[in-house]
Amino acid sequence: MEHSNPTVILGGGFTGLFTALHLSHNHYSHPVILIDQQERFVFKPLLYEFLSGEMSDDQVWPRYQELLQGSGVKFVQNTIQSIDLQQQRVELTSGGYTYNHLVLALGCINGYFGIDGAQEHSLPFRSGKDAEVLGQQLRQCLQKASQTTNPQERAALLTVGIIGAGSSGIELAATLADVLPDWYGDLDGNPQEIRIVLIERQTEILAAAGGAKDSLRQTAQSALQNRTASVELLLGAKVSAIRNNQVEFQRNDQSEYLQAATIVWTAGTETHPLIKNLSVPSEHRARQGHLHVTPTLQLPDYPEVFAGGDCAASPDNPLPPTAQVAYQEGRAIAHNLQALSEGKAPTPANIHLRGSLLKLGLGESAANLWDRFEVKGKVGHLIRQGTYLELLPTPVHNFKATSEWFIDHIFHHHSGSGSLVSSLIGEHS
């Protein structure tokens, strides 16, 4: 299982996968090994399209072996047991690797904050499998609702409770509010009985979305109220327990309850356990346990180790945990690994925040570009789709022609300007 002086990448999310792909593109001279517990990459921003049927699993949830075919990168599907920074060693369930350079890109895990029953009685929404399970659960509930004669049972079956009104909760609620009435209508049910409820402890939506502008909040809130099934917002509601088909929360010093056959958790994340267990002192960690990195995305005490995505935190330049940031960090890490292999000094990562993209239902999105202006509705949707389609891994996921069609259709025909989508995500060819 050993390779000579390999570069080992732990985690195949945006940072890990795109580090590997860029290294391959740059003809990196050392062996590259990408390790992930799962068989498939997850394009998380497009999970909503997978759930709704707008995109297929092959597009949103492709296999690493297919993505890395012909790249020279070795993919290992295995569970990481431990990381020894001193010995430069990674142990897996079967075997392990001694590395020359290491890239930590393990992402994060769902954080349940000690809430009673939250993990046991709510569904996550972070992977393709999660989306499949949620879709199956929803269709089963709609089927049962169409057959029962008990009005209370039907009401619970047709109610979806979503915990957390950040970006994930908003996008999921907006998507379900459009697709569930259609699904239920196909069963001759009454779409007006569908109930989508967002529960948020803060007093506003998108409270943790990297300082979302008020205009984006207003756009999102208006869109939620104008879906096929209106979304109910319970703000200032602190969830205290989740039981089978029931959410208990506190609001205005009173205990309240929501009866829902489907409860989805989008309320937050926490640091990956393997990152928590690393021998890195607290002074080189963020408050949440993320690893402090230098401007070159290296660990201060271990320059042979790079970190990006949800594993890393820059004390001088905090960045939101978005796909556009993770992608750019992967590119920057690959650039610096290439530089080191050529005897050159690594350079600071140049991460550009180019705005926020928010799915607000079928065929509708909001694009807050460079925090200067906002495009919403169908045009916002085309910008969001074009941006993400152009980020899909290549060569197997060659959606370049599709994204170029979006760019040409929106901008060349309507404004005569250059490619805004390309500038949104940066050059990555």
UniProtKB/TrEMBL annotation:
Where the record annotates domain FAD/NAD(P)-binding, the positions are: 7-330
Instruction: Tell me where on the tree of life, at the top rank, the source sits.
Output: Bacteria
One GO BP on record is:
aerobic electron transport chain
EC number(s) stated in the UniProt entry for this protein:
1.6.99.3
Name any cofactors this protein relies on.
FAD
Provide the GO MF annotations for this entry. Answer: NAD(P)H dehydrogenase (quinone) activity
The UniProt keyword set, sorted, is: FAD, Flavoprotein, Oxidoreductase
Family of the protein in this entry: Belongs to the NADH dehydrogenase family.
Protein name, per record? NADH dehydrogenase
Query: Which source organism does the UniProt entry give?
Result: uncultured Synechococcales cyanobacterium
